[in-house]
């Protein structure tokens, strides 16, 4: 399978590089175009991907076309590849851009995959939401669906959703959540510095504690409430900290913040 990436910035570059580095696809089957020629040259030099001279050239070389540009210019890109998508598959990584936005330019029969990846994909620990539209359940469509999911799995886990709206609803849980975790890690590290640790050691302790806890939960398939109870000894230090967090509305604050994110992401209409 040949893949085109239109845009190799933060997320497009992460997906393309991750797929190549983890042997999801041979570099010579990856065609990349970016309007920033320096970035394009550096990316292809680093990964071995094939540079394209334009959006249309990249699309014409591929079976699957990833559109990884800023939401404001997806319509411009769509116009430039219009007429080249028959028999091909279009994958959108642009946040907030609906399937209908592409169909209006590329044609109602275009086969579209709308994704919502997150930052950890750059290191192979991502979580990508995927919505497939105009795909049949068998034949070539089913083969491409399986292949795209396999490629996405080279940069982390994949969750398919059945309704397009759910892609935007995932943003609060997966795409935006690294920022929440960073706030907590920073706060924990500040406390470490306050009690005398170096900034580097304090950050390392907080980062490793969060990563280790998540890895342990995944490995043991434990509910977070169960693990929390295991760590909280009767009358101990951890339950004192947890009690303080609850008194200060920790859970309520997180839920309200995520609802603000969801409300900003989800549209009232326009979904397929």
Outline:
This protein is α/β, with parallel strands linked by helices and 272 residues long. The protein contains twelve helices and eight strands.
Describe this structure in words.
By secondary structure, the chain is α/β, with parallel strands linked by helices. It folds into two domains: 3-163, NAD(P)-binding Rossmann-like Domain (Rossmann fold), CATH 3.40.50.720; 177-265, ProC C-terminal domain-like (ProC C-terminal domain-like fold, Orthogonal Bundle), CATH 1.10.3730. The protein is built from twelve helices and eight strands. It has helices at residues 10-21, 37-47, 55-61, 74-81, 99-106, 139-153, 165-175, 177-194, 199-220, 224-231, 237-247, 250-265, and strands at residues 3-6, 30-33, 50-51, 64-67, 89-92, 111-116, 126-133, 156-160. Strands 3-2-1-4-5-6-7-8 form an eight-stranded mixed β-sheet, sandwiched between helices. Strand 5, helix 5 and strand 6 (111-116) form a beta-alpha-beta unit. Helix 4 (74-81) packs parallel to helix 5 (99-106), helix 7 packs antiparallel against helix 12 and helix 8 (177-194) packs across helix 9. The longest helix has 22 residues, at 199-220. The radius of gyration is 21 Å and the shape is elongated. The relative contact order is 0.10.
């Amino acid at each position: 399978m040949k893949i085109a990436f239109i845009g190799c910035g933060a997320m497009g570059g992460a997906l393309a590089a991750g797929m190549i580095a983890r042997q999801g696809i041979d570099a010579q089957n990856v065609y990349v175009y970016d309007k920033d020629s320096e970035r394009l040259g550096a990316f292809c030099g680093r990964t071995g991907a094939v540079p394209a001279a334009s959006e249309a050239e990249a699309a014409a070389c591929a079976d699957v076309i990833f559109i990884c540009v800023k939401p404001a210019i997806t319509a411009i890109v769509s116009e430039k590849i219009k007429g080249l998508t028959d028999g091909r598959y279009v994958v959108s990584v642009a946040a907030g851009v609906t399937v209908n936005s592409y169909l209006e330019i590329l044609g109602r029969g275009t086969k579209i995959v709308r994704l919502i990846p997150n930052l950890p994909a750059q290191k192979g620990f991502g979580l990508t939401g995927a919505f497939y539209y105009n795909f049949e359940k068998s034949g070539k469509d089913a083969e491409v669906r399986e292949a795209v999911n396999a490629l996405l799995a080279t940069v982390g886990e994949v969750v398919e959703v059945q309704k397009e709206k759910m892609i935007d609803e995932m943003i609060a849980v997966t795409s935006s959540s690294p920022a929440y975790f960073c706030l907590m890690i920073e706060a924990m590290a500040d406390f470490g510095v306050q009690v005398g640790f170096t900034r580097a050691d304090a950050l390392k302790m907080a980062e490793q504690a969060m990563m280790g806890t998540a890895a342990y939960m995944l490995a043991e398939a434990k509910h977070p409430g169960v693990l929390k109870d295991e760590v909280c000894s009767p009358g101990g230090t951890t339950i004192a900290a947890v009690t303080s967090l609850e008194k200060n509305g920790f859970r309520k604050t997180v839920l309200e913040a995520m609802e603000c994110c969801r409300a900003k992401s989800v549209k009232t209409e326009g979904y397929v």
